[in-house]
Amino acid sequence: MSWFPFVGLASIFSTLLASSPVFSSAKLLVIGSLIETGRRLFQWLVERFRFQYSMTAQFDEGDPSYEWVVHFLTQQKVWRRSREFRVSAKSSKRKWAIHPGYEDIGKDNADYVPTYELPQIFRWNGYWLEIKRTKGVGMPAMPQYGMQTFGGTIFVTIYSLNIGVLSDFVEEARRSYLEVSKPDVIIHMADTPHYNPGFTWTNVKRKVRRPLSSIILQEGVIQSLVQDAQEFLDTEDWYVQRGIPHRRGYLLHGPPGSGKSSTIYALAGELGLEIYSLSLASGFVDDSFLQRAASSVPKRSIFLIEDIDCAFSRDDPDSPLDMLTSIPGLPPQYVPNVRRSAVTLSGLLNVIDGVGSDEGKLFFATTNYIDRLDPALLRPGRIDRKIQYTLATQAQAAALFTRFFSENRSTSSNHSIVKTETSGKSSAVVVEKTVSLNGDSADDDASVIKRLSEIFASAIQPNEFTTAELQGYLLSCKKQPLQAVNGILAWIEQERIDRRERKEREEAKRRKAQERHDNFMKARYTPPPMVAPVPANAGGFVGVPVVGEMLGKKAENEREMSPTPAYEPKDAQSDKDRGATTGS
């Protein structure tokens, strides 16, 4: 009896197997299980193989090494077989794109950037490399900045256990990147907020490298700056041995358009450095953001803060804006919508003095008003050199003219040059002299340009115009040096008229702001009239307020309208009664 249940189960199982559909299903189940087991075993073996015989490096977008690797892989045509592209018009924003190879350069107006989604395998220096890229992850950010996207990541897998192979790969990518970047100045910018742990320089732009000779400054200024910066970069060991932080700070100050930013770009091109530029006026930049930005700037780079006075300047108390914002309790409709920087002076000083500031970085700051900066920022050790930029001198004007027309050959022989001279401070009085210059050689052309530059410079009052303004004028007659000389006085007169009109508009705006300020102050601080309650028996108006002199007048009028009988002694009233009786 004890074997009966097992015999019954065996008979049931044999009956089911005898059925063709059930038997087929069982075979499929066994085969599927074996296949899945084999797949997992193979995956396990592959993972162990890759773990033992390969290494993987991760490069995050926003870090300079990411740019090195993407450029190198593009040069190696790793993504040449890609079938998905993002097409965008060419601009100053740098993109590592695939070039179709047009023979006609006029057709090359777009960038074809692969999406880099599919893994790619290629061979480099005898080693197999596998490249895989992941997209950035988007998430909602502040409404004014739209969608916040975390940068993508590139994974480079090298089938070798030698760490030196990875180091050689990164160094070769870096050298190739620096070589292709020589004609340009690379500018990294952070123009959107970031909430991910790693800081990202989201915007990378390029500017054509500008020769130092194109920067028209006072004699010796640009050469001294380049020499100082180069010496700083070459003496890292000297700083370390003496325990001095390896950092250098420069402040370029002067009027707008005098060449401060152009100097920094030219210096970066000359020394082969990249610029990391940050604006403190952005609404999302605070002390924490500034600290992360400065810490992420790589070694041997320029960290640039333009218009540093906009963050925590000493405001002009006479400006129309400060007249309004200084009033306590001013209604919102009177206050302009002005956004102040969230960066504090202590936050900036901590960044300059911080741990990441002594890694061979050049710190540059520009300002139009040096007197608005706190002395704590200007002390040695934070700002090591202060370079003042002024309005154009006559020597600078002549150098700028020569720079514009030095290779121009339109001033051939037998030209008549009009020399314009000014009498006193006014350029309205003009003495004309005709000077004939004849010649056929290049030396004669150079002498003509030199003579024209002297005449051009003599018409300009020193420290009246910026080099940018003079350059703007010369651009209007870039191939006509004679026209530039003959039209300079008319241009100067028109510029002076425009300046007077702008000054009058500013004065009118200032007067209007002062008037609004005075009217508001008068309305706000006029003492209120005296208020007193009316007595309860004065006309029956209990608690009615009466103002100033009206209280006395109203009480007097009420007494006249309802007179009260005069008080008389009792004896006097009896005498009247007796007199009336006697008279009768």
From TrEMBL:
Biased composition (Basic and acidic residues): 501-521, 568-584
Compartments it resides in: Mitochondrion inner membrane
Start and end residues of each stretch annotated as Disordered: 501-527, 553-584
SUPFAM superfamilies per the UniProt record, alphabetical: P-loop containing nucleoside triphosphate hydrolases
Main localization, broad class: mitochondrion
Gene3D superfamilies: P-loop containing nucleotide triphosphate hydrolases
Keyword hit for Acetylation: no
Domain AAA+ ATPase: 246-393
Chemical reaction(s) catalysed: ATP + H2O = ADP + phosphate + H(+)
InterPro entries on file: AAA+_ATPase (IPR003593), AAA_lid_BCS1 (IPR057495), ATPase_AAA_core (IPR003959), BCS1_N (IPR014851), Mitochondrial_chaperone_BCS1 (IPR050747), P-loop_NTPase (IPR027417)
Annotated ranges, domain BCS1 N-terminal: 29-215
Membrane topology label: Single-pass membrane protein
Keywords: ATP-binding, Hydrolase, Membrane, Mitochondrion, Mitochondrion inner membrane, Nucleotide-binding, Signal, Transmembrane, Transmembrane helix
Signal peptide extent: 1-18
Pfam families: AAA, AAA_lid_BCS1, BCS1_N
GO molecular function, one term: ATP binding
One GO CC term on file: mitochondrial inner membrane
PANTHER family referenced in this protein's UniProt entry, alphabetically: BCS1 AAA-TYPE ATPASE
Entry's family note: Belongs to the AAA ATPase family. BCS1 subfamily.
Protein name: Mitochondrial chaperone bcs1
Species of provenance: Moniliophthora roreri (Frosty pod rot fungus)
